[in-house]
Write a structure and sequence with these properties.
binds adenosine-5'-diphosphate, five-stranded antiparallel β-sheet, binds magnesium ion, alpha+beta, two-stranded antiparallel ribbon
Length: about 300
């Protein structure tokens, strides 16, 4: 594994001060840090490998993929990695990442009422599409696109500038190849991802490709435009992994309630439908989405 290479740096405390906690995920804690030499602020993602004792090989392989992909990508809307530290005696791994401390897109959803207007939503969504197109063109599926993993960089000149982060579930999926792992967040997971693991449906698939990301983006667009998720309108946490939610997803049972969608343009709604298409072969690709008239036109129109 990458962190077992000789020469990997160990003395993070000599190079960085830890300032505050920025956020947590399933397997990590992310801190703001300052480079002691040049004073630059960074994000430090801390992963404790001891936590993976239940299934170490699986997690270590995935972590290795996360590093490989982070080191390879370079795009203005994707968080990049600057350095890696590993303290072997403590099994502690640290990624030094670009800092994006303007909050998560998640904080801009609002409850039942979107906090971004349609033009702002378009501006944010286009950047997400560009980042994901870059990944897909390199054979990378992110597999965990959701508002929690899209961060604002807090640029005064460009307050809605975003970067996508968290390649903790990302992998290469070559043309003609299929992935099978059921992963991602239940609210944003594509039907074929669910189906590849369960036999609950009629869609004949035995795996999935990069298009699973296009579905997740459809769910993200739905939620930022309307303030509500497409498939779970009661906020019951219990429901999030139930067969009922998965059943709704695989059958594509979502609606556009007048209450939330009355003021949204028909074009925006059309792009949501093109992305939230159950059959992955009929679904819009990211490139098609970037050419959709809602994205290419400057102003909301109906
Ligand atoms: P996990 O793989 O455990 O889900 P993430 O990479 O998603 O970890 O990071 C967890 C949280 O930490 C994010 O949701 C976000 O709030 C915060 N975070 C992650 N990376 C950065 C960053 N580069 N700048 C600022 N905050 C970040
Ligand atoms: Mg995360």
């Amino acid at each position: 594994f990458y962190w077992e290479q000789t020469g990997i740096k160990k003395e993070i405390m000599k190079e960085y001060d830890f300032i505050r906690e920025l956020g947590t995920g399933n397997f990590s804690v992310v801190y703001e840090g300052i480079n002691k030499i040049n004073g630059k602020r960074v994000a430090i993602k801390y992963i404790n490998l001891k936590k993976f004792q239940s299934e170490p090989v699986k997690f270590h392989l995935q972590l290795n993929r996360e590093i490989e992909i982070l080191k390879m990508v370079s795009h203005e809307n994707i968080i990049s990695i600057q350095d890696i530290f590993y303290i072997d005696s403590e099994q502690q791994l640290f990624f030094i990442l670009d800092l994006a401390d303007g909050g998560e897109l998640y904080d801009k959803i609002g409850y039942d009422r979107p906090l971004l207007n349609e033009l702002e939503a378009k501006y944010v969504f286009k950047q997400i599409l560009e980042a994901v197109l870059y990944l897909h063109n390199r054979g990378i599926a992110h597999r965990d696109l959701k508002p929690e993993n899209i961060l604002f960089i807090d640029d005064k000149n460009d307050p809605l500038k975003i970067k996508i982060t968290d390649f903790g579930l990302a992998r290469f999926i070559n043309e003609g190849e299929l992935a099978r792992t059921l992963c991602g967040s239940p609210l944003y997971v594509a039907p074929e991802v669910i189906v590849s693991r369960t036999s609950c449906t009629t869609i004949p698939v035995n795996g999935y490709g990069k298009t699973c990301d296009a579905w997740s983006l459809g769910a993200i667009l739905y939620i930022i435009l309307s303030g509500t998720p497409p498939f779970d309108d009661d906020t019951d946490e219990e429901m999030l992994s139930t067969p009922k939610l998965f059943q709704q997803i695989v059958s594509g049972s979502y609606r556009f309630p007048e209450r939330n969608w009355a003021s949204i343009s028909k074009l925006a709604l059309d792009l949501v439908v093109k992305l939230l298409t159950v059959d992955p072969n009929q679904r819009y690709t990211i490139a098609q989405a970037l050419n959709h008239p809602w994205i290419t036109s400057s102003f909301p129109s109906s």
